[in-house]
Amino acid sequence: MNKVEIKLDFLNGLQLLDGKFPAARDLIEGLIREQSVNMLAGEPGCGKSILAMNLALAVATGEETFLGRKIMKHGKVLYLNNEMALPDFRERLEKMAGLAPHADLLLQLTVPIVMPLLVEAYASIREWCRENRPVLIIFDCLYLLHTADENDASSMRNIATLFNSLRDEFGVAILILHHNKKEERGASPNINSARGSNVQSAFVDTLLDLRRVDATGNRRKLTPTKLRHVSDAQRKGMNIELDPKNLWFVLLQQQDDGGDGDGGYFVDAIDFVEIFQGRVEMQMKEILAACKPLGCSSKTVQRAVERAVKNGTLVNVKFGVFAIRNDATNNTEPW
Predict the structure, then answer these.
(1) Predicted model pTM
(2) Which residue from 4, 18, 105, 181 has the highest number of Cβ atoms inside 10 Å of its Cβ?
């Protein structure tokens, strides 16, 4: 990888203690700091780019909140797109722009016509940042920014230093889009879900995990698996849904992850007719396995089963075995 030369400025200990530095502040309340490096990871096609574009537009055009969290600072946003063809990016932007609070402020969103490798574009990015002083830079996405081995810690550390240098030189928030490991599909979100070396999850301040709730629907679960600047007790999992007409995600419910991290929404969202798929009976362990791809915890599934028994959707045939009522599948014959 080509070396990037950066001129260093230095402070001695007394200068450091005597200096006046701005207090750390949030860009998105309780989620993204102004001067930080962050990652949004998920499987291909889960909506990472759409969610990142939502964030870019919200910050650039004066939206008050993002997924229920207050936007503390607005300003210029640089969206470095290297995955979508520019006409596709434009088509998405056109759909989203109708809900932007101040569409005239779209001039605060900048997108390069072509985005090469990071080391090749780094000087241009720094020059643009010096002239425009953005509050947010989005890299979409990581695997097309470099030619390094993602599983090699040394190689990924070199990439990480470039992001950190931009963060510190310009006091900017950086969001990097990345993919999860294939084996993470169906597993619970965790700090090591992102593909490649664990260096990637180690150097970021915030790691957001985006997953589908169902295979074909518009519901997603956004989980902060790492928040360096807040306590674990403050972590909030977000249940969100995509409006396919305007391509904006909306917050359905927010829950403290001090519980099981799923929320009552997931209890109600489980479709047991679909889970049973025509089977007469299922054991609890079979129901848990069938619900695993939804990304909800075993506690949430058990609560959903209890609620389904109470409302008559399921029947508790015997200990640990459940059946779906015939009338729950539009058959009027009761059990």
Answers:
(1) 0.73
(2) 105
Q: In degrees, to the nearest 5, what angle opens at C-alpha 17 toward C-alphas 13 and 18?
A: 115
Residues 57 and 125 in one domain: yes
The CA distances from residue 137 to 55, 172, 176, 260, 309, in Å, are 11, 7, 9, 32, 49
Domain boundary at 211, 237, 258, which? 258
Measured in residues, the chain has a length of 335
The yes-or-no verdict on residue 61 having pLDDT over 50 is yes
List for the chain the helix, strand, coil content (%; round to 5): 35, 25, 40
CATH number of the CATH domain containing 273: 1.10.10
Token digits for 316? 């508790």
Q: What angle do CA 209, 213, 216 make, to 5 degrees?
A: 120
> Closest by alpha carbon to 133, among 164, 161, 173, 93?
173
SS3 259: coil
Q: For 187-196, how does the pLDDT look when each residue is reduced to its tens digit (9 = 90+)?
A: 778 888 899 8
